[in-house]
Structures are given as C-alpha cells and as structure tokens.
Design a protein that fits this description.
The protein has about 350 residues and is α+β, with helices and mostly antiparallel strands. It folds into 3 domains: about 50 residues; about 120 residues, Hect, E3 ligase catalytic domain fold; about 120 residues, no CATH class. The strands form 6 sheets. The chain has a 4-stranded mixed beta sheet with strand order 7-13-14-15, with helices on one face. Strands 8-9-10 form a 3-stranded antiparallel beta sheet, with no helix packed on it. The protein has a two-stranded antiparallel sheet with strand order 1-2. Strand 11 and strand 12 form a beta hairpin. The longest helix is centred in the N-terminal third of the chain and has 36 residues. The radius of gyration is 31 Å and the shape is flat.
C-alpha cells in the first residue's frame, strides 16, 4: 500500500491508525458522492422532467427521446428515454380512476378487473416483473395506481428512496444493507411542468386521494376476546374477526376475498360465535395445565371444612393461551375445538349457530 510504504502491518500502531483514517476519508467521500448524485437527480427531475430509469408505470411504455442529454453519453451513442402512453393499458388506468371518482370501493374495482379477465400489471409486462406471479389484480395494485402522481403527466422522483441500514446494530463490522422505504409527499421531487402525456387530470387525481368508501357500523366499542387465537380446521387459516347480530364472531372464507371471483367448489364459509366458545375455555384450560399443577388444583376451605375448587374464569384461560402462544383450531365438521399442543387437547362445543 503506497501510504504504508509497502505491506500493511496490522500489528503496528501507526499502520492501524493510518487505516482508520483512510476508512474515515473513504466513508466521507462516499457520503459526498451520494449527496452530489441525489442533488443532480433532483434537479434533473424538477427542472427538466427527465426520466431517470426504472420500470414504467402501468399505462405507459418507454419511447425514444433523442440523443442522451449528457454529451459524453451521447457521444457513446446512448439515447434518452421518456414515458409515452401505452394504447393497451392506458384506458384501464383511466377506467380505474373514473370508477374511484364514482365512489366505488377498491375491492369492487379489483373484482371487476379480475372478472373481466384483464391482465394485471405484472402479467401485462412479464419481462420487467419476473419476480411476480402475475396471477390476478390485488387491492394493493389498484391502490398503488390510484396513488401514483406520475399519471398527471409530471415526473416524480424520490417516492421510495434507498437507505443504508446496519445489518446487525450489535455488530457494526457486518456492514450495511440497502433498503427502500416510502417517503412522505413532502419529500417527493416533482417536475415543474408536464414531462409526458397525462392519463388523468391533476384535479381528478387530487379528488381521488380524498375519497374514502363509506363504512356502515364502524367497530367502535367492539371487543374480540379471541382475536388471533382461532384457526380454521378445514384450511388452517387464521379466523377473521367479524361482528354479526350485535355479537362477536369469527369467520374463515378459505382464501376467498371480495376481490376474487366466487368459486362454486370452494368450501362453505366457517362461522363460529364467540359466546359459543367462551363457556368451554375454563375446562380446556384445566386440561391444558393438568390437574396436578398448582394452577389446576387451587382450592379453598369452607367453614364446614369442605374443600371447594376455585372456578377458572374464561379471562384467565384466554390470558394463558396468549402467554403460552397456543392457538385453537375449530373444525365445523366435528364441532370440536382443539389446542395446538404436543398432546392434542380437544373440547366438543356443539353447534356453532
């Protein structure tokens, strides 16, 4: 190494101090370079509306924009790129915004797209989405399209900036890894003027952001005591909490959602009321802890000298299940409730409705 005048001796104090100093200088230069690059990219977006790479949004395709703006790159024969309207997918984007402006929910829009057989973004452009299955539209896809300001015709940068996080904060020697996080709108860089054809007007885009589908009977004051503890005995999925007839209940639709097309071969929805489960929890708790443990044989003596077992409350049983990370599987075919322990503990709870 030139600075050391030869090989580096890590046992020498002077060489160690020199390597630490060089490391600090290198890290400083990396930080300065990152700042310069990000500043330049922000200026190119804001002042020029330049396309800075990445997958084009659904509804657009890449088009030639002439010689590269950088003279050196242009001399090498590189061409600039810009976003242009995709005649096949752009009408779908306009339809999604129109449906949302009409007050339709995201689930209804997603379900309509799937029922119409329209390819989802990853299926429409599989070459740029090899990491995705491309099976169907999802709520998150429709939500992402409605929240993308690039459909207004303006170039936007820094919506999902990269950051460097320590791999292990307890061991900084392992280095960093690159992660991406969504930035707040205040941190976005938006072009001062339109940079590509707009698919929706700015007024419609702003109007869509303020739309919320109306909800009837919000979950105020409702309590689901077994939330997260119940599983389906048919498909193994965790049961959803639901409120029906002013009572807490649990439901499993076996993978079906409001965005998917109904399948006649799908099993019937599982439904179980909470008040049908709670009375059986104390007995299940006693069987789980065992009658020979202190928790299972708490007694009190009456004035007549009779030993009486202290009843176990359902609240104590629920607390035990959560602290022990035990889930309960309900099978509607046998009308049984089984704890997922090493030794299967089952309780027959009878009909669920």
């Amino acid at each position: 190494m030139p600075e050391a005048g030869g090989l580096v001796d890590f046992q020498a104090e002077g060489h160690e101090a020199m390597m630490i100093g060089l490391g600090i200088q290198s890290k400083r230069e990396i930080t300065r370079t990152r700042i310069r690059v990000r500043t330049a990219m922000a200026a190119q977006t804001r002042e020029q509306g330049r396309y800075l790479g990445g997958r084009p949004p659904y509804g657009y395709r890449l088009a030639d924009a002439g010689p590269h703006p950088n003279r050196a790159h242009a001399a090498w024969g590189r061409r600039g790129r810009r976003l242009d309207t995709d005649p096949e997918t752009a009408p779908i984007v306009r339809w999604i915004f129109a449906q949302r402006l009409a007050g339709h929910s995201l689930a209804r829009i997603t379900r309509a797209l799937n029922e119409a057989g329209i390819p989802c973004p990853s299926a429409a452009d599989p070459g740029r989405n090899t990491h995705r299955a491309g099976l169907a539209w999802s709520l998150t896809t429709v939500r992402a399209i409605l929240a993308n300001p690039r459909y207004t015709g303006r170039q936007v940068w820094n919506r999902q900036p990269s950051a460097m996080d320590l791999i292990d904060p307890a061991n900084t020697g392992l280095g960093h890894r690159q992660v991406q996080r969504w930035a707040l709108p205040e941190g976005w860089v938006i072009s001062a003027r339109p940079a590509h054809p707009a698919l929706v007007s700015e007024e419609d885009f702003i109007g869509v952001q303020g739309i919320r589908a109306p909800r009837e009977n919000p979950d105020r004051g409702r309590q689901y005591r077994l939330a997260g503890l119940m599983r389906c005995g048919i498909c193994g999925r965790r049961l959803e909490s639901c409120w029906a007839n002013n009572r807490a209940a649990y439901l499993c639709r076996h993978g079906y959602s409001s965005t998917s097309t109904r399948d006649p071969a799908r099993p019937k929805n599982l439904y179980i009321r909470e008040d049908h489960i709670l009375p059986h929890l104390p007995a299940l708790f006693i069987r789980l802890v065992g009658t020979e443990t202190p928790a299972g044989r708490k007694r009190r003596r009456t004035r007549h000298g009779t030993d009486v077992t202290t009843p176990v409350s359902d609240a104590k049983a629920i607390s035990y299940l959560r602290s022990s990370q035990i889930t309960l599987t309900y099978d509607p075919r046998s009308e049984t409730l089984q704890a997922d322990t090493t030794e299967a503990v089952t309780a027959i709870i009878g009909r669920a409705s």
